[in-house]
Amino acid sequence: MQLYQYDHCPNCVRADMVANYKALFHEKIYLLHGDDDECYALLKKQSSFKNRQLPIFKSDDNTIITDGLKIARYLDKIGNSEKPIRPSTKNITAHNILEEAELHINCLVFPRNILLGLPEFSSRQSRDEFRIKKESEIRRPFEKALEETQHHKKIVETALQRLPEQSLPSNHDHTISWDDVMLFPKLRNLTMVLNLQFPDHLRRYIDEVAQATSIHTYYHFEI
């Protein structure tokens, strides 16, 4: 099995979380951002391939799935049945709070993505293409966003303080939930921001979900 992905991409992380958690051996293939024509040329031969976004999952029987959550749910079905994923409680409050702060989160995360040495940004072209696309989204150059770090941090930290306390894997026999699959990737990206203050309960939540799903955080990369 192969999972084509980017390290920084929340949708990719969702699929990888479930694959790791369900003990499914899979080859992780990190593509260069904006330089994935060879992969697409291969996968477009499959009639089911329509989406030019990662992640892309290819099974041993050449089944192709191209949506992160669809991949995650497929892997849940075929993976270790002794590692259940608890149902979602529709954690709307947390997602609404983060959505309100989305611009400020992106201003912190996007410029740092290309500074971490991630495999998808190992070429100048991949970094430049990402920069052009994301600077348009945040409506400012990356340099300006980095200069404004303290402003964006203050707003994001306020949002993090408002997040309700999340149920921990350790409270449920070290299992994860579909709420974790949705929320954790967003919080994980914020761990790349130097000295960003997480509430203690949220830091523990991030650490426990990371351990349960074998997904690394970015604390050691902090910029």
Automatic annotation (TrEMBL):
<dbReference type="InterPro" id="IPR007494">
    <property type="entry name" value="Glutaredoxin2_C"/>
</dbReference>
<dbReference type="InterPro" id="IPR036249">
    <property type="entry name" value="Thioredoxin-like_sf"/>
</dbReference>
<dbReference type="Pfam" id="PF04399">
    <property type="entry name" value="Glutaredoxin2_C"/>
</dbReference>
<protein>
    <submittedName>
        <fullName>Glutaredoxin-2</fullName>
    </submittedName>
</protein>
<dbReference type="InterPro" id="IPR004045">
    <property type="entry name" value="Glutathione_S-Trfase_N"/>
</dbReference>
<dbReference type="InterPro" id="IPR036282">
    <property type="entry name" value="Glutathione-S-Trfase_C_sf"/>
</dbReference>
<dbReference type="Pfam" id="PF13417">
    <property type="entry name" value="GST_N_3"/>
</dbReference>
<feature type="domain" description="GST N-terminal">
    <location>
        <begin position="1"/>
        <end position="83"/>
    </location>
</feature>
